[in-house]
Amino acid sequence: MDDLYKEYILDHYRNPRNFGHLDAPTAVAEDLNPLCGDRIRFELAVDGDGRVTDVRFSGRGCAISQASASMLSEDLKGKMLEDVARLSKEAVLDNVGIGISPARMKCATLGLKVVKSAALGEIATWPDEDSSENGRST
Question: Which of 21, 57, 64, 117 could form a disulfide with 107 if both were Cys (CB 3.0 to 4.6 A apart)?
Fold first, then answer.
């Protein structure tokens, strides 16, 4: 079963969904994993009701960080910003579908941290921490 998920991760890494930039994003955030240098930027188009109408991400890094961001981007369209801000680490890990070691957890959850920063309009904490001093939003 892990082989199936590994292929799925590699497919998202090699053929990322929603990769690129929006012409006029409503919300933008970018951050990096200081442990390895992975970088992700999320751009959201949000309508007047607070619903995500379009999403793009960009960045570079390991297969786990980029594939996880690609998978996450597919889940965002149509969601309300408050629902995006409440997305859990478990939802992201369920998308990835394989066990993630503690050393790779920040790789897998970087996209979630960044998209929450965009939804909240402020720097979000790492999904497994309480402190918000772990990155920056632009």
Answer: 64
Q: Out of 3-7, 42-46, 122-126, which region has the weakest mean confidence (pLDDT)?
A: 3-7
pTM for the predicted model, two decimal places: 0.86
| DSSP annotation of 32 | E
Residue type, 41: R
27 forms beta bridges with: 44
Q: Which domains does the chain have, with CATH numbers?
A: 2-120 (3.90.1010.10)
Q: For 6, phi and psi rounded to 5 degrees? A: -60, -40
Residues 14-55 pLDDT 10s? 999 999 999 999 999 999 998 899 999 999 999 999 999 999
- The rounded Cα 99 to chain-centroid distance in angstroms is 18
Q: With left for phi above 0 and alpha for psi between -120 and 50, is residue 37 left, alpha or beta?
A: left
114: left (phi over 0), alpha (psi -120 to 50) or beta: alpha
pLDDT tens digits for range 45-62? 999 999 999 999 999 999
